[in-house]
Design a protein that fits this description.
Blueprint lengths: L1 H20 L11 E6 L4 E5 L7 E7 L8 E5 L3 E4 L7 E8 L10 E6 L11 E8 L4 E6 L6 E7 L8 E5 L3 E4 L7 E8 L13 E4 L3
Antiparallel strand pairs: 1-2, 2-5, 3-4, 3-6, 6-7, 8-9, 9-12, 10-11, 10-13, 13-14
Length: about 210
């Protein structure tokens, strides 16, 4: 009789424990992630509001493993991520933090940051105007800029090691060249505090002999 009673108690305990383990998670997922603002280095997003008051955000480049990303806690219904890389795809995970009730399941979204904004327009249509044995005259399209840097050297030279000239005109006459010599020429806009534009395509010219 005692054995039967003991087995009954053990069986009841096992059933009870099984029910506790299988109990559903009462922590609700947040609503859908909504992208509010997006630029080249930051993302502002929000989510549907419910009765919860705390959330956990984890993010990183697409493909990162959960637990290895950047994790942040928030009590707001929106979140601002900054210091991102331009033109990069990120995955954002979000779950509700229910305190002693644990966490909800994750929701996620993939977002691609924007290309960096161009604040200094490069020149275009770099072309030869006239040529002699010691001079090359150039012109290019302004593209709304007002100052430029010309860099030139023997064909194949590395940018940054050539001869540079500055001008506020969208044409320039390079002088003092060697006859029958091939030169490689680049132009970029000088935008002052906004820095320089990218270089134009190279113009390769051989002086007269």
């Amino acid at each position: 009789m005692r054995k039967l009673l003991l087995l009954a108690i053990v069986g009841l305990c096992l059933v009870s424990c099984s029910k506790d383990d299988d109990a559903p998670n009462n922590c609700k997922q947040p609503g859908s992630i909504i992208i509010e603002q997006l630029n080249s280095t930051s993302i502002l997003f929000s989510w549907g509001i419910d009765a919860e008051t705390a959330w956990e955000v984890e993010y990183g480049p697409v493909g990162f493993a959960l637990g290895t990303g950047t994790v942040r806690q928030t009590s707001q219904e929106s979140f601002f991520i900054e210091d991102l890389e331009p033109a990069t795809e990120y995955r954002i995970y979000l779950r509700t933090n229910c305190g002693s009730d644990g966490f909800s399941e994750y929701i996620s979204v993939d977002v691609v940051t924007a290309e960096p904004s161009v604040t200094c327009n490069p020149p275009s249509n770099l072309q030869l105007v006239s040529l002699s044995d010691t001079t090359i005259e150039l012109s290019w399209d302004e593209n709304n800029e007002t100052a430029w840097e010309i860099e030139y050297g023997p064909t194949g030279f590395a940018l940054g090691t050539g001869t540079t000239e500055n001008t506020s005109q969208n044409s320039f006459n390079i002088e003092g060249l060697s006859p029958s010599t091939t030169y490689e020429i680049y132009v970029r806009a000088n935008c002052g505090s906004d820095g320089f534009s990218t270089y134009s395509d190279a113009l390769v010219i051989t002086t007269d002999g």
